[in-house]
Amino acid sequence: MAQNQERNQEATVYVGNLDEKVTDTLLWELMLQAGPVVNVHLPKDRVTQQHQGYGFCEFMTEEDADYAIKIMNMIKLYGKQIRVNKATSDKKNLDVGASLFIGNLDPDIDEKFLYDTFSAFGVIVQTPKIARDTETGNSKGYGFISFDNFESSDAAIEAMNGQYLMNKAITVSYAFKKDGKGERHGTAAERLLAAQAKKNIPTIMPNKLVNIILNIKY
């Protein structure tokens, strides 16, 4: 679509984890609940014409896009929790290692509850994960959250460790790294790398990446 090259990126949201049954029309009608929609784009496989599990929705204003993120992020659509966030910021969020372990969770706490609680401290770079029994789907009582910087994760630990969520005092600490060496995230080395990476990210990169994903034809 020719108008794509003038897409207002600040008023555009990324919508991920979409079920294969979701269509452009359905996504359009869903997002209308947040505000007037300008354009919906679901990148499709060239052979099967099936969308690839994510898409983009452009609103009239940035305020409408922000409202869509607030009310639509992590709602269930065909049984899958969709992810809704800014198309621009989504591509520049780096997983720097600011990953937290959240323990002693009440069984009724789900991923959306964790997101809503901890997003107050900063940008969460991926959907929070709650460990679940593979057969029953029940929570095992712990989960993980990753922020895009250590200032946010430090603040979350300071504010939330020992706080009560649904009548249970939760524990919040840096998660163990996946390399199996028993070291937790949040080390001085990780913080140094994160600070260096932040300085080296070109500000023009996010929009370029979004344009590539949208396969815009000029």
Automatic annotation (TrEMBL):
It is found in: Nucleus. Its main location: nucleus. GO terms for cellular component: nucleolus; precatalytic spliceosome; U2 snRNP. The keyword GTP-binding does not apply. Keywords: mRNA processing, mRNA splicing, Nucleus, Repeat, RNA-binding, Spliceosome. GO terms for molecular function: RNA binding. This is Splicing factor 3B subunit 4. Gene3D superfamilies: 3.30.70.330. The keyword GTP-binding does not apply. Residues 11-89, 98-177 form the RRM domain. Belongs to the SF3B4 family. It holds the Pfam family RRM_1. One of its GO terms (biological process) is positive regulation of mRNA splicing, via spliceosome. InterPro entries: Nucleotide-bd_a/b_plait_sf, RBD_domain_sf, RRM_dom, SF3B4_RRM1, SF3B4_RRM2, SF3B4_spliceosome_assoc.
